[in-house]
Amino acid sequence: MGADTEPPGAGAGRRGELDVLRALVVVGLVFFHSALVFSPDDDFYVKNTTTTGAVTVLAGFGVVWAMPMLFLVAGLGARHSLRRRGPARFARERLLRLGVPLVFGTVVLCPLPQWLRLRAADPAYDEPYLTFWGRFLSVRPDPADFPFVLEGEHFETRPGTCGSSCCCSPSACCSRRSPRS
Question: Facing residues of 151 across strands?
Answer without folding.
Answer: 140
